[in-house]
Design a protein that fits this description.
The chain is mostly beta strands. Helices cover about 10% and strands about 40% of the residues. It starts with 14 loop residues before the first strand and ends with a strand. It comes from Planococcus chinensis.
Length: about 160
């Protein structure tokens, strides 16, 4: 049980690249006895995931910057800063970044999905000029590992 206050912000120590996006891991399952995790994600236009379903956790998104269109089940939700979006487990979803980039506070409950992100994250290079999408080999490895975390891609 979480019995003490937690205050964190994105830093060089907790921010990594996952599939071309910056992930700042604020709260992990270890902090909350597996109840939830919180990640700030800076997403770039053109590097969105294929449609997928989570079998273990719900995802909630609170848009901080930019514009994102979420496709969840049969619904299309256009999000602008201040919009909250819920993607329930078991429902296929994806998103499309409409601005050059978007910053999203992402809440995962229960925790666990952040372990998948961390496993496939890499440190942010010091002299990063442009983020490249994962290579086809890297994407194939990522898709193969997703099942271990209850993620099913629909491609």
């Amino acid at each position: 049980m979480v019995s003490k206050p937690i205050a964190k912000q994105p830093t060089a120590e907790n921010t990594f690249l996952f599939s071309g996006a910056e992930f700042s891991y604020l709260i992990n399952g270890e902090d909350t006895d597996g109840k939830y995790a919180v990640v700030i994600v800076e997403k770039l236009k053109g590097l969105e995931p294929p449609p997928h379903t989570h079998t273990n956790e719900d995802e909630d998104f609170f848009l901080l910057e930019g514009e994102v269109t979420y496709m969840i089940g049969g619904e299309v939700i256009h999000a602008t800063p201040g919009t909250y979006v819920h993607a329930p487990k078991g429902v296929q979803h994806t998103f499309s970044v409409k601005t050059d980039k978007a910053k999203v506070l992402t809440y995962l409950h229960p925790a666990g999905l952040e372990k998948f992100f961390k496993e496939w994250s890499v440190p942010i290079p010091e002299n990063r000029t442009a983020i490249q999408p994962p290579s086809s080999d890297e994407m194939q490895q990522l898709l193969s590992a997703a099942g271990k975390y209850g993620i099913k891609f629909h491609i």
